[in-house]
């Protein structure tokens, strides 16, 4: 195994896997990571590893885990505190790198780094609050206890649309709970991922506790399969497409494991007849076109009450046309798509537009022949696509049923709220949802009926907070939750203990005392 030693200095932007604190130089290929806003700009070079490196990383994590678990939890909390402090000190640098490598507008990139800081702020205290319970026994001279124990070694596989915030949702609580980690980030955000790793490495995380493997999808799957077969991985966390999540769920099921799956979304927004339409338009604009529609929580279909349908559509079209688009280093709502493969996938989604649809605005890539008014910068330099509204979508449409992962929003009408709820559930996804209304009864009826794991009232479908559970159901996930105290159930296992100090064997349910009572008594 070739490694980088102290005499060998990597070139800036030369990204390779880290196993046991050592850079691994043997790679199966090297590919450039380019700036999607300026495709001629190479941000760095990624050395992708084969399946065997993933297995080595799992072995290193497995070896390091007992020592890390033995570290007192408050000390692990201090490490998480250090991560938060270094993230704060490097916020602008890391945000600028996010913008450079994946094209996320700088304001959103700063918000993403802040999400890591918020996550660290929350979990550093959990080092002193990994509570169990003392439970009374049914027998004398006996005590019952419960403890949270780390699950062991965790494999984390994440997408690149949130290259640092989403990984922190897994990695921070996993480490805090005493687990070790093998992280496989997206290759198209590898330079950002490497910077993220370095901050953890400089925060006091021991070698082998946090390992990073850069690999493509097939090699990652093969490595994970081998690591699971060898008993090296105890938990898998995955953020990505529903199709890949299904395969990972099947693989983990063969090893009697339940993964933490955070998958895609086709998130509905219901706008009632009593809604504040200006507020609803603002929410739809940010939900649908922020990050160029490349969030798992991006707005999929806007479901508008018939009496305000035309007015909403007019206002939404105007706001979309006026939205700032272009160079992500500037004050814009949306920048480029993340990568060439996502551009190709989005163009396939645009092919779902049918004759019965009303298309508002231009579609496709922004070019000199297909311009966008007020574009900020040079559209020819990057992967810029028009934000598009498609009205008149129907439940049977591909555009209605499938995640598009790009700047297109469907709009349809409803008459009764129950119909709107049914439309919101029709796609089979269940991640995020939103309702705009001024009537509390409608908000509660919607929340009760919608299948989504997250509901917003008079707010967008996007906008997670570090202390709330994040996750979905159906095609959006397997019911697991990230963030807040709820994620602790993903990275710890419950252990019960009974301690009998009576000096004799007391058998539960057999030697339990019985309280005598006259249950036939009636008041005179």
Features:
524 residues, 35% helix, alpha/beta, five-stranded parallel β-sheet
Into which percent range does the helicity of residues fall?
Answer: 25-40%
Major sheet: 7 strands, mixed
CA gyration radius, whole angstroms: 26 Å
Q: Give the count of helical stretches.
A: 15
Q: How much is the average pLDDT?
A: 95
Low-confidence stretches: 1-10
Strand content: 15-25%
Cα distance spanning the termini: 88 Å
**Net shape:** globular
Structural class: alpha/beta
Number of strands: 22
Strand ordering within the main sheet = 15-16-17-14-13-19-20
Characterise the protein shown here:
This protein has 524 residues and is an alpha/beta fold. The chain has helices at residues 51-70, 73-89, 91-102, 106-124, 165-176, 190-201, 217-229, 242-254, 277-289, 309-322, 340-350, 398-401, 417-425, 440-449, 488-491; strands at residues 14-15, 18-19, 22-23, 29-35, 38-48, 133-136, 142-150, 153-157, 180-184, 210-212, 235-239, 260-262, 267-271, 299-305, 358-360, 388-391, 408-414, 429-430, 432-436, 454-457, 473-474, 492-500. Strand 4 and strand 5 (38-48) form a beta hairpin.
How is the topology of this model organized?
Layout: E1 14-15, E2 18-19, E3 22-23, E4 29-35, E5 38-48, H1 51-70, H2 73-89, H3 91-102, H4 106-124, E6 133-136, E7 142-150, E8 153-157, H5 165-176, E9 180-184, H6 190-201, E10 210-212, H7 217-229, E11 235-239, H8 242-254, E12 260-262, E13 267-271, H9 277-289, E14 299-305, H10 309-322, H11 340-350, E15 358-360, E16 388-391, H12 398-401, E17 408-414, H13 417-425, E18 429-430, E19 432-436, H14 440-449, E20 454-457, E21 473-474, H15 488-491, E22 492-500
Parallel strand pairs: 1-5, 8-9, 8-11, 9-10, 11-12, 13-14, 13-19, 14-17, 16-17, 19-20
Antiparallel strand pairs: 2-3, 4-5, 6-7, 7-22, 15-16, 18-21
Helix pairs in contact: 1-7, 2-4, 3-4, 3-6, 4-5, 9-10, 13-14
């Amino acid at each position: 195994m070739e490694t980088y030693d102290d005499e060998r200095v990597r070139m800036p932007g030369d990204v390779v896997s880290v196993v046991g604190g050592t850079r691994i130089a043997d790679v199966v290929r090297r590919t450039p990571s380019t700036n999607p806003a300026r495709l001629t700009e190479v941000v760095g070079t990624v050395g992708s590893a084969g399946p065997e490196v993933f297995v080595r990383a799992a072995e290193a994590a497995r070896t390091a885990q007992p020592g890390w678990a033995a570290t007192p939890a408050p000390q692990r909390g201090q490490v998480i505190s250090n991560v938060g402090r270094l993230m704060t000190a490097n916020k602008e640098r890391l945000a600028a790198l996010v913008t450079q490598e994946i094209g996320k507008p700088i304001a959103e990139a700063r918000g993403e780094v802040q999400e890591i800081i918020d996550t660290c702020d929350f979990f550093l205290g959990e080092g002193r609050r990994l509570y169990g319970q003392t439970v009374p026994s049914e027998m004398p001279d006996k005590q019952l206890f419960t403890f949270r124990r780390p699950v062991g070694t965790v494999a984390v596989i994440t997408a690149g649309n949130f290259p640092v915030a989403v990984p922190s949702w897994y990695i921070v609580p996993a480490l805090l709970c005493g687990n070790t980690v093998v992280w496989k980030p997206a290759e198209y955000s590898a330079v950002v991922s490497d910077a993220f790793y370095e901050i953890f490495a400089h925060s006091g995380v021991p070698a082998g506790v946090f390992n990073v493997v850069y690999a493509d999808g097939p090699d990652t799957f093969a490595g994970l399969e081998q690591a699971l077969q060898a008993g090296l991985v105890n938990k898998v966390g995955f953020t990505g497409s529903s199709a890949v999540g299904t395969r990972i769920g099947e693989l983990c099921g063969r090893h009697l494991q339940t993964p933490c799956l955070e998958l895609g979304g086709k998130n509905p927004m219901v706008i009632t007849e009593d809604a504040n339409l200006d507020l609803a338009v603002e929410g739809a604009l940010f939900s649908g076109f922020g990050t160029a529609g490349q969030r798992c929580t991006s707005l999929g279909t806007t479901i508008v009450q018939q009496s305000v349908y035309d007015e909403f559509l007019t206002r939404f079209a105007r706001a979309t046309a006026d939205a700032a688009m272009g160079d992500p280093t500037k004050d814009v709502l949306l920048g480029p798509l993340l990568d060439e493969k996502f551009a190709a996938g989005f163009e396939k989604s645009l092919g779902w537009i049918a004759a019965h649809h009303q298309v508002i605005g231009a579609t496709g890539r922004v070019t000199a022949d297909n311009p966008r008014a007020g574009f900020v910068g040079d559209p020819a330099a990057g992967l810029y696509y028009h934000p598009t509204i498609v009205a008149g979508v129907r439940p049977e449409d591909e555009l209605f049923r499938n995640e598009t992962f790009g700047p297109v929003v469907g709009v349809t009408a409803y008459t009764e709220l129950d119909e709107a709820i049914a439309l919101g559930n029709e796609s089979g996804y269940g991640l995020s949802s939103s309702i705009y209304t001024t009537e509390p009864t409608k908000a509660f009826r919607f929340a009760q009926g919608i299948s989504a794991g997250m509901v917003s009232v008079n707010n967008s479908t996007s906008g997670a907070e570090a202390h709330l559970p994040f996750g979905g159901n159906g095609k959006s996930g397997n019911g697991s939750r990230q963030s807040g105290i709820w994620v602790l159930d993903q990275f710890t296992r419950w252990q019960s203990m009974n301690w009998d100090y009576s000096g004799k064997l007391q058998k539960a349910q057999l030697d339990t005392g019985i309280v005598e009572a006259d249950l036939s008594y009636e008041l005179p």
